[in-house]
Structure formats: structure tokens, C-alpha cells
């Protein structure tokens, strides 16, 4: 039940049922003086094995859409369903814990921990079954371009780009069905950004995950399978 | 239980704040401990005062005998008792202390003898209990002296006759028919002037007072044939217990010439200030507990505000809210326990300071009450630990309710 489906980059599995389905999704912020409707009646289905990007001008509702889809917030109208089950039924906390991981724009790392501790803590909370969590965390950090020396430093002693990479490694470590990311390459140099995009693509295409990235970057959008554009609370895709 | 590990990492990483929290907790625990020490010491001092001073009830009645006084002594609340009978025997082969003033011509015929007071327990006499009379030599008369020929004499009388503890003094009945030698077991000195300015007959001078077991008076043919006592003094723990004794005494002795006097002045003088200090300590404890809770609660609340991003992050990973509260509780408790241990170590020093506040040293108590015993008991530590943990819980859980209302989206995402 998509508004429009792009045809230029076909999904990995045409017949696969949607992993995430937004139905009549609307969201309104109520301020002291006025109400602002950010999303209006959005219907869209996300599939496994597809790398999505969401584009749109500032204030178009990208982050709100990501928050609702990732179970960080409840819509004022409409539903979000994971594998055909309403999130309200699953429970937002459980959904976030078991099925999704999010890379935030502001990284939101635990500042009293090292990079590797941030990753292992996320693995513990999301109950990832890994025998050697620390080794796995170091491996993921290396994948995103952080060597062992930096991995064992307190995150406050890392640069913005390095912190961003820790946030990405943390999301990857959770081994979930859907990965959301809000401007994940904004603070990264070109080479590192390219490496991250490759990881996202591999995650979608080789490990059959659904990857949804909110970005302003046309370059990143060009590398995704499908691009949604948000404008005035409505979504269109190509 | 990864929240415990997180709490540990957080405490280590935030050394400054941990030290601040530890300092505040230490101050709260030391103050609480001080309050409990003060409360405990005053309670012990009060119990000691009750034991030593108590409330003296004097019963007089026509039908009061030693046997009936003994029955009344079994009424609950009565700690000790003293049947009293006075008489004037003759002093054989010795000199009496006399007034320097001339005898008025119109005075009644002089009874030339000392005042012999028969009793059971000389320490129970108000003069001794309040410190007005003190023992300068030997020992007091106790119930174990009953049936023995032993006496306690005044210091001036002893000096005048060259007597000391262990010597014998001979007393005789007024008619001279009965005569007995008594061993001096103790010498007492009365704080009042031994010989007042005006004329008093020898038996009325405090210096000529001789205390002996009750039976001595009968041996010397003093007292009434029916064994009637002048009065009996009962020592009670507190004034509240007098009512029961009054009812029992009235039942046993009837209304004829019945008098029941409660003397709780000494008790009030000693115990009331202690009670006030105890009540103050109790109030202090709760004030400190309240203030400690508020201060720590505010600190934890501010910390939670500062750590909203962290909480939002953990919530976004699906961490349960009770575990977030658990992490904060562990962080506060991990500070509270060392603070408690340090406070226990500081307890002795605190006790020394607190002892200065206690009224046990006041002049009115004289040598009556010993120095207050300030000791750190396991119960005190337990109470401080209980309150400390309570403060930690309240100051963590109340701001923690805010965590329950948190929503990760509102914490993490920038508004569109």
C-alpha cells in the first residue's frame, strides 16, 4: 500500500511482505499557541533487503517520520506495523529492544564509557548473543574505521566523526531487522562516508536487513535502492 | 544486571560528582549518628536518673507498719523502699554536738540524746539522693544490715567522740533499761550547717543524727508497741507510677490519717532536662533526615536532568525504565555505604562533642549522676543505615518518577 513505488532500483525481493508498514500515519505537535501537523496521512511499506534514503528540506518531518517508524514516539493518527503486527501490540520498548537500531544525528553516546564499552553496552541491553562481545565490538569499530587505540578511549576524547562511527558501530552491533540512521555521514570525510554507505548497502543486500537513512546528501541518496522525499508532510518516492 | 556495571562505570568516570555526593552523604550520616548518639545517651542517662533518683513517695498512716510497707513495696513500679521510724535514745559514754546559742527559758524539757533514725536503706534518703549529705567514710546502710547492730553517724559527732568506721558506739533507751553497742559502719557529713545559729535541742541538730537498721529502735524500746512506722518512702521510676501505689496504699491502710506525698522535684530537676535534650535530638534526627533527603533529591534530580541524553539513548535501545532507576539507585547506594562506614569511624569523635551538650555535668546533679555514657551501638548504626538507605531511596525514586515519564523521542530528536 505505497503512495508510489520507485522503479529505477528494484527491491531485493519483489514479493517479500513488508517488514514495516505505515498506514494513515499523521503527526501533530501541539505547542502553547498552535498545533503543527508535520506528517499527513502517510502510507508506505518498507521491505527487507532494501536500502532506503529519506530526503526533504529542513522541517519537512524527516526526523519525525524516523522517530515514529523506529518506535521512539507514537503517531497522533495512523499505525506502524512490524511484520504485520501493530507496534502498540508489540510494545514500543520491546520493538526498539529487539527489532530496530537507530543512529542519531547527535550520536547520543554514553559519555562515561569508552567506544568499545558503548558498543558492548548496547549489545547487552539488546541481548545480542555473542560469545565474545568485546571482540565483536572491536571488529565492528574497525569496520567503521576506528582502530583499537581509539576504540578503548573515552568517547569524549574522540572527534565528532569518530563519535559518529562509534554510534554506527553500536547500531550495527544490535543485529536487528531494521536500521534507522539520521544524517549518519554528515560529519564524516568522503572516504569514511563511502565506507559507511558500503556497510549499509551490504547490510541490506547481503544480510537482508531494511536500512532507512534520513539525509540531505544527494550523493548518499544516489547510492540507495529507493529514495523517499518528504514535502509538506507528504511522502513521494522515486 | 548490566545497569549495575553501568552505575560502576558512571561513578568512576564522574569522580568529582561522586566525591561531592559522598561528602554530602557523609555529613548527613555523621549528623544522624550524632543525633542518635545524643538520643541514646540521654535515654541511658534518663534511665540512670530514674534508677538513682526516681520519684520518692512518702506514705504516712495510722496503720502503717513495717510489714505493710513491705507489702506495698511489691506494687509494680516500686524499685526500693525505706520504712522510717525516729526516736531519741541516750548516748552512753559520749558527747553530743550542742547549740552554741543559750537555751530559751520557756523551751520544753530537753531530751538529751541523739536522733536515731531506723531505716532499711540509707542511700534512699532524699538528703543522700540529692547529694546534700555525703558519706565521708565507710559505707551506707543497706537492707542486708537488718538484724545487725550497725549505725551510720554524723561526722561532727564522730570527731567529737573520736569515732571512725569500725568503732563501737553505745546507745541506751531513755529509761536506761536497754543498752546496746553498735558498730559504726559509715560516717556522713551533712551539707547544711551542723550547728545552726539559733538554739536547737541536741536531737534536732543534723550533726547528731544516727542512722540504724529499723530493728534497732525496738531493741532500745523506742517506737510504739504495735510496730507503727512514722512513714515509709517508696522509690518509683517515674511520677506516672505513683497512681497505682496510691490506690494500693489506700486500699491497704485505709483513710485514717492517710497521707500520700509525691516528691518528684529531684526527678523533674534531673530527668526533664534530659528528656528535653532527648526530644531535641529526636527532632534533630528527623530534620537532618528531611534536609538530607531534599538536598540529595535535588542533586539526583539535577543529575538526571544533565543525563537526559544518556537516559534517552538507553531508552532508545529498549532499556527498561526500572533499570534506569536501578542504575541511579545503585550509584547513590554505592556512595551511601562508604559514607556510612566513614560516619561510623567519625562516631567516636562526634560522641565527644555531643557529650558537652548533656546536662549530666551540671552542678545541680553534683556527684549524683555519672558522666553520660556515649557509645556507638550496633542499633545506632543500624538506624543510621536504615535512614541512610531510606534517604537514598527517596531521593532517588522521587526524581526517578521523572524518568518514568520520559519519552526517548522528546529527549533525543531535534524538532523538525
From TrEMBL, chain A:
It holds the Pfam family ABC_tran. Signal peptide: none annotated. Coiled coil: none annotated. Keywords: ATP-binding, Nucleotide-binding, Transport. InterPro entries: AAA+_ATPase (IPR003593), ABC_transporter-like_ATP-bd (IPR003439), ABC_transporter-like_CS (IPR017871), ABC_transpr_LolD-like (IPR015854), MacB-like_ATP-bd (IPR017911), P-loop_NTPase (IPR027417). Residues 20-238 form the ABC transporter domain. The keyword Nucleotide-binding applies. GO terms for cellular component: plasma membrane. One of its GO terms (molecular function) is ATP hydrolysis activity. Part of the ABC transporter FtsEX involved in cellular division. Has ATPase activity. Homodimer. Forms a membrane-associated complex with FtsX. PANTHER family: IMPORT ATP-BINDING PROTEIN (PTHR24220), LIPOPROTEIN-RELEASING SYSTEM ATP-BINDING PROTEIN LOLD (PTHR24220:SF689). Belongs to the ABC transporter superfamily. This is Putative ABC transport system ATP-binding protein.
TrEMBL record, chain B:
This is Putative ABC transport system permease protein. It holds the Pfam family MacB_PCD. The chain crosses the membrane at residues 284-304, 330-354, 384-404. Residues 284-408 form the ABC3 transporter permease C-terminal domain. The keyword Cell membrane applies. GO terms for molecular function: transmembrane transporter activity. One of its GO terms (cellular component) is plasma membrane. It is a multi-pass membrane protein. Residues 95-114 are annotated as: Disordered. Keywords: Cell membrane, Membrane, Transmembrane, Transmembrane helix. It is found in: Cell membrane. Belongs to the ABC-4 integral membrane protein family. Residues 19-251 form the MacB-like periplasmic core domain. Residues 97-114 have a biased composition (Basic and acidic residues).
Amino acid at each position: 500500500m505505497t503512495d508510489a513505488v520507485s522503479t529505477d532500483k528494484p527491491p531485493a525481493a519483489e514479493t517479500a511482505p513488508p517488514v514495516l508498514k505505515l498506514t494513515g500515519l499523521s503527526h501533530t505537535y501541539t505547542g502553547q499557541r498552535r498545533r503543527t501537523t508535520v506528517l499527513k496521512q502517510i502510507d508506505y511499506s518498507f521491505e527487507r533487503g532494501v536500502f532506503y534514503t529519506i530526503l526533504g528540506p529542513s522541517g519537512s518531518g524527516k526526523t519525525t517520520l524516523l522517530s515514529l517508524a523506529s518506535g521512539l514516539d507514537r503517531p497522533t493518527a495512523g499505525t506502524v506495523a512490524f511484520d504485520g503486527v501493530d507496534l502498540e501490540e508489540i510494545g514500543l520498548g520491546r520493538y526498539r529492544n529487539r527489532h530496530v537500531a537507530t543512529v542519531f544525528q547527535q550520536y547520543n553516546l554514553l559519555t562515561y564509557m569508552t567506544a568499545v564499552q558503548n558498543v558492548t553496552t548496547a549489545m547487552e541491553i539488546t541481548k545480542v548473543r555473542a560469545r565474545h562481545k568485546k571482540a565483536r565490538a572491536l571488529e565492528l569499530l574497525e569496520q567503521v574505521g576506528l582502530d583499537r587505540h581509539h576504540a578503548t578511549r573515552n568517547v569524549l576524547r574522540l572527534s565528532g566523526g569518530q563519535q559518529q562511527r562509534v554510534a554506527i558501530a553500536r547500531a550495527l552491533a544490535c543485529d536487528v531487522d531494521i536500521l534507522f540512521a539520521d544524517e549518519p555521514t554528515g560529519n564524516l570525510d568522503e572516504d569514511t562516508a563511502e565506507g559507511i554507505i558500503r556497510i549499509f548497502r551490504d547490510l541490506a543486500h547481503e544480510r537482508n536487513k531494511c536500512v532507512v537513512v534520513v539525509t540531505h546528501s544527494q550523493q548518499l541518496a544516489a547510492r540507495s535502492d529507493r529514495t523517499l522525499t518528504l514535502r509538506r508532510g507528504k511522502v513521494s518516492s522515486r | 544486571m548490566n545497569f549495575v556495571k553501568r552505575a560502576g562505570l558512571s561513578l568512576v568516570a564522574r569522580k568529582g560528582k561522586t566525591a561531592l555526593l559522598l561528602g554530602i552523604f557523609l555529613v548527613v550520616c555523621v549528623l544522624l549518628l550524632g543525633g542518635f548518639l545524643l538520643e541514646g545517651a540521654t535515654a541511658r542517662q534518663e534511665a540512670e536518673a530514674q534508677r538513682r533518683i526516681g520519684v520518692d513517695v512518702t506514705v504516712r498512716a495510722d496503720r502503717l507498719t513495717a510489714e505493710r510497707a513491705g507489702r506495698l513495696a511489691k506494687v509494680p513500679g516500686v524499685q526500693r523502699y525505706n520504712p522510717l521510724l525516729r526516736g531519741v535514745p541516750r548516748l552512753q559514754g559520749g558527747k553530743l554536738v550542742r547549740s552554741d546559742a543559750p537555751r530559751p527559758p520557756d523551751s520544753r524539757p530537753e531530751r538529751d540524746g541523739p536522733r536515731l533514725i531506723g531505716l532499711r536503706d540509707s542511700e534512699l534518703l532524699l538528703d543522700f539522693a540529692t547529694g546534700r549529705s555525703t558519706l565521708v567514710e565507710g559505707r551506707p546502710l543497706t537492707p542486708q544490715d537488718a538484724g545487725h547492730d550497725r549505725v551510720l553517724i554524723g561526722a561532727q559527732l564522730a570527731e567529737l567522740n573520736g569515732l571512725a568506721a569500725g568503732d563501737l558506739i553505745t546507745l541506751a533507751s531513755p529509761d536506761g533499761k536497754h543498752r546496746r553497742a553498735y558498730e559504726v559502719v559509715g560516717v556522713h557529713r551533712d551539707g547544711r550547717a551542723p550547728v545552726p545559729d539559733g538554739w536547737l535541742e541536741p536531737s534536732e541538730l543534723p550533726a547528731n543524727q544516727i542512722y540504724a537498721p529499723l530493728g534497732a529502735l525496738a531493741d532500745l524500746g523506742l517506737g510504739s508497741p504495735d510496730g507503727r512506722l512514722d512513714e515509709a518512702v517508696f522509690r518509683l521510676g517515674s511520677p506516672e507510677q505513683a497512681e497505682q501505689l496510691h490506690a494500693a496504699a489506700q486500699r491497704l491502710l485505709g483513710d485514717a490519717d492517710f497521707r500520700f506525698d509525691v516528691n518528684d522535684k529531684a526527678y523533674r530537676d534531673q530527668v526533664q532536662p534530659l528528656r528535653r535534650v532527648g526530644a531535641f535530638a529526636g527532632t534533630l534526627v528527623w530534620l537532618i533526615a528531611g534536609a538530607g533527603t531534599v538536598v540529595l533529591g535535588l542533586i539526583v534530580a539535577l543529575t538526571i536532568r544533565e543525563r537526559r541524553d544518556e537516559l534517552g539513548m538507553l531508552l532508545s535501545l529498549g532499556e527498561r525504565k526500572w533499570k534506569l532507576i536501578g542504575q541511579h539507585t545503585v550509584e547513590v547506594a554505592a556512595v551511601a555505604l562508604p559514607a556510612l562506614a566513614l560516619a561510623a569511624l567519625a562516631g567516636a569523635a562526634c560522641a565527644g562533642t555531643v557529650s558537652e551538650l548533656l546536662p549530666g555535668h551540671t552542678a545541680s546533679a553534683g556527684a549524683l549522676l555519672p558522666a553520660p555514657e556515649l557509645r556507638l551501638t550496633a542499633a545506632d548504626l543500624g538506624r543510621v543505615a536504615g535512614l541512610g538507605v531510606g534517604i537514598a531511596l527517596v531521593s532517588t525514586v522521587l526524581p526517578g518518577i521523572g524518568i518514568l515519564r520520559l519519552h526517548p523521542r522528546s529527549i533525543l530528536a531535534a524538532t523538525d
